[in-house]
Every structure is written in structure tokens, then in C-alpha cells.
């Protein structure tokens, strides 16, 4: 990432939550579980393509044997589809944990396409099951259309995932992305997709060699014919990868290319040369010899996939390293700011709660006059700015809270508004210290600035209390 691009990259803070397991363990699980998942995705996509191809060939040529081959391949698609879905849960969750900020940002930027994944997959499942179970029950064109529709959707859904995972690598491009289509225009997306499609054909060809080449499932084809056919599918797809692979590598943005990425991918490419040699020998082998190198091909293919998958992961780590470090720093700043804010709030709460009289006021007075001292319009008068509270001597206020107002001579006027003129003597049961603290709190809160009330002033009134409520006339209005 160039300095200019780095300035364009948004750097939010991450979720300040610990991972449930060490990140290194999570990444190993991510790579291995993803490779297992993508294997069955490859078999699903490649199987769909081959099934449609052989179905069309049999239909157009009127040769039943090709349609029968398509039907047998069709039996594997729904199984591989189910395994792909189930095995996709693990890497999806691991990706969410390891690259939370990147994964969800990419999903949000390609929102409509991402939301369509589930409906599209559901439709593809229905079409594939229809193609599987309706052989001979539909017009040929319609039946083939079911399989072609499923294959098209199976091929399109990985493109959505690929666009998202590619978008994760380029935070500096996030401000410019305006949806799925613009995400497809980022570097190497379409080349990566072609690489995926060829891998699907190669994996499916090798799988079908083992699945069909050693069984008498198709009487109109010999095992030797089937093995040769699908060895050639794998061979051609692998040879094409030698063109697409280097193109993909050199189209990668340079900020993610490191020595370990290059070494890992180059090792996979060199090993694929050995694989090509074995595939070529198998495709030319006679009926007695074919299949002897199958497990050698299978193990070599698996090693190539592991190396390429590891290289892909190394590139993702290296491409996002600078941005992840910046996000980590921003997250630490956020956590520190959050800690300071919580401490300040705690100090303010402690100071506020430590004010004498506040706790007793909130227990005995706030239900009517409210915690903020504003009362309720037309019912309970406010204490904030009240002339009854702000007067110099507290005698009238002490008399009201100790003996109450009877309300017989009408409503009370406070700040030019009319309120209920009756008030019970609900503080007389409290101690002199508690009453004086409450009155002092009221006289010195919410902008009120009046002298404190002492316990002796409350005690002096209590000693001569008449024990019944006062009227406003008796007390005199302020």
C-alpha cells in the first residue's frame, strides 16, 4: 500500500474483545477448514458443468450413453453440495473472528449481492434436485435447463464470496466501492475467479476418475474410457492453470507480495509440474496400467492445493498487516479513552452521590419534585429556582416539610405558575441532621444559591411544632 493509498484507508477501531483461542490456532483452523470446504465447492461446481455438458451432448446427438453419464455425475452433485454447505460453517466463523472488521465491511459494501447468497443457493438446490429426480419426466430442453440454471447459480455464488474476500484486502479502496459490480473491478478479481473455475474442473476430473473409473456403473463405457476422459479433464485444466496462475500472481498488488508468499506459490507450481507428468502418463496408459498412479496423483494434487491455499492466506496476512496494525493502535486508543471516560463518570457519580442530603432527597422527595427539581407541570411545583426555596431564611421551608401545607386557601404560586397547594409532612420522622441536609441540598442544587440549613434550626422548629399543617396565609407567601 503506497503512502497516498494509506491516507485514503479508513482506520476504525476494532471490537475490543479477546479471541476465544490464540489467533495462530484460529488461522491454522481457518486455512485447513477452508481447503476442505472449497474442495467440495469445486466438486459441486465442476460436477454441475460436466453434468450439463454431457447431458447436452447426449440430448443433441441422440446418444443415450452421454445422458446416462450425466445422470450418474448428477448423483454426486447434491451430496457434494450438502458437504460444501456444512463444511463452510467452520471457515466462515473463523473468518468472522480473525478478520471481523474486514469481513463485515466487505459484506456491507456488497450488501445486495451478499444478501442474495441464501436465496440464490436455495434456488440452486431446488433446481439441482429437480434435475436429479426428473430424468425422463420432462421435455429434454426443460430438463437440461434445470441443470444449467443450477450450474450457473453454483458458479455465480462463489464469485460473490470471492469479490468479498478480495475486497477485504484493500481497505484503501473501501471509500470508492459502490456495490458488488464495482468490487468486481478491483485488481485480479476476475483472474482469481477463472483460477477457481479451472481448479473446480481439475478437482472434479480427478474425483470422477476414482468414482467412475473403477466401477461398472455405465455399461456403455469401459472403466478405461472413463478414466482417460477425466484424467484429460484434469490435465487440461491444470495446464491452463500454468497460464492463469502466473497472470494471477503478477496481478496481485505488490504490498501483499512477500518472500514467503512467492516461495509457497512457487513450490506449489513446481509440484504441479510433477502432477502434470503423472496425469499425462495416466491419460496415455493402457487398460491394464491405467490407475496405478492414481493415488500418487491424488496426493500430489492435495499437496499443491495445500501450498496454494497457504500462499493465499500468507498474501491476505501480508496485504492487511499495515492496516491491521493501525486498527490495533486505534483500538488501544479507543480502549484507553473508554477507560478514562468510565473513570471520570465514576468520579462524578461518587462526587454527586456523596453530597449530603441527595440520597435522602431522592428517596423521600424526588417522586413528586423529580430528581432534577423541576416537579410536574400543574401538579407538583418545581424546587429549582423556586422563590419558596431561595428566600434568605429557611424558616418557612422548614415549617412546610415538618408540618406540611393544608391547601385550604387554594393553589400555590411558584415562578408564576399554579400548582397543587397541599403537601404532607413527610420529613418529620427524619432526624434533624437528615432534614437539614435535604433542605441544604435543595437550596444549593439546580442553580439554587441559598444558605445552608443547620440541624439546630430544624431542632428549634421541631421543639415548637404545632403538629398540624399550615395554610399559605398563615405562613405568608414569599
Task: Provide keyphrases for this structure.
478 residues; mainly alpha; Cytochrome Bc1 Complex, Chain D, domain 2; two-stranded antiparallel ribbon; 20 helices; elongated
What do these coordinates show?
With 478 residues, the chain is an all-alpha fold. The protein has 2 domains: 14-339; 358-475, Cytochrome Bc1 Complex, Chain D, domain 2. Helices cover 70% and strands 2% of the residues. The chain has helices at 3-8, 23-61, 64-87, 89-98, 100-109, 111-115, 117-133, 140-168, 180-184, 189-212, 223-251, 259-284, 294-353, 358-364, 366-369, 387-390, 395-403, 432-443, 455-463, 472-475, and strands spanning 405-406, 412-414, 417-419, 422-423. It has a two-stranded antiparallel sheet. Strands 2-3 form a two-stranded antiparallel sheet. A hairpin with a 2-residue loop joins strand 2 (412-414) and strand 3. Helix 2 runs antiparallel to helix 3, helix 7 (117-133) runs antiparallel to helix 8 (140-168) and helix 12 packs antiparallel against helix 13. The longest helix has 60 residues, at 294-353.
